[in-house]
Amino acid sequence: MCPLTPKELELIFEKLDINSDGFLTLEELNLLLERTGFKFSIEELESLVGKKSLDLSEFMFFYDSILNHKNGDVDEIEEIESDLLKAFKVFDLDGDGFITSQELEYVLKRLGMWDEEKDSRSMIYSYDTNLDGKLDFKEFKNMMLLT
């Protein structure tokens, strides 16, 4: 399988997003998967994806996961996931499952990676897909994999 470019994936995403709401439903995603030789029930797909719809960055991450899985890199994906979870726990100081702008700034300062010109709220906002003002693990993972 020849990997697709991010621009090609964006075009595919836009074509599949029938109602142009910026999200692919599992049904829309399954149409593409069936055409490319993957057979999933909606229940299996929801189990794989972990939610009922995907935005563009989640779609790109899902594509990379499928591509790597098909190429036999399952152990590598699990290792990356494990490493990201460990990193997430470093930033999630209170263990509530979220990273706030205060936690982000505190950890970056302790690591010597903080520049006073940075704004931790805008850093969080850039990847906060549900707009709750903090990052959950999925948002953190997308941030780490996209940067």
TrEMBL record:
CDD domains: EFh. It comes from the Eukaryota. GO terms for molecular function: calcium ion binding. Residues 4-39, 79-114, 115-147 form the EF-hand domain. Keywords: Calcium, Metal-binding, Repeat. InterPro entries: EF-hand-dom_pair, EF_Hand_1_Ca_BS, EF_hand_dom, EF_hand_pair_protein_CML-like. The keyword Repeat applies. Pfam families: EF-hand_5 (PF13202), EF-hand_7 (PF13499). This is EF-hand domain-containing protein. It comes from Trifolium subterraneum.
